[in-house]
Design brief:
The protein is of the alpha+beta class. It is 29% helix and 31% strand. It contains five helices and seven strands. The protein has a five-stranded mixed beta barrel. Strand 6 and strand 7 (117-124) form a beta hairpin.
Amino acid sequence: TGLCNIAKSGTWANGMAREIPLFPLNTVLFPGGPLPLRIFEPRYVDMVGRCLRENQGFGVVLIRDGTETGTAEFHDVGTLARVVDFTQLPEGLLGLATIGGERFRVRSHHRQADGLNVGDVEFLHEEPVRELPEEFRHLGDVLGKLLPELGEHYAHVENRPTDASWVGYRLAEILPLTPESRQYCLELDHPLERLRLLDALINRQNV
């Protein structure tokens, strides 16, 4: 499993597409969020090597059906990611610290001879709501208490507790949600809609 520097190319808004390697996983990566990975399959070791050499990213997509080590059907909305650190581990494993970049939608994809999935993707832009509204300030406070307890995986994560998108993404990745529920949160285009959903979930759990 792995990622790389955020691609500089096209966006969903202007219709430009980019071909990137895809990494189907049983987890959802959110923009700005951490994803520690241990890679051993040659197709992904080669992929990470190319990403590092070419300063490019690759996409993480949630598996809909299948396995991480075999063939898989996957959701068409995923997140680009970048490698921020890597370590050679025992038994030939490659350990990666990765951070999520932009969301994207897979328009088409194919599987190479080596088993690597490659997709033509268009990048998605979220509705710009930078400041966390007063009604959701308590969610920023919740994160302020939780994140310090989550350990070294969050060492590379930028802290933006007053940013509406950032707060929503961090809650979606650390709350006890199913992968499909996390995927639903990822696909929402408006940060306030995501915050309302998560706030209601937290309130139900506290009842």
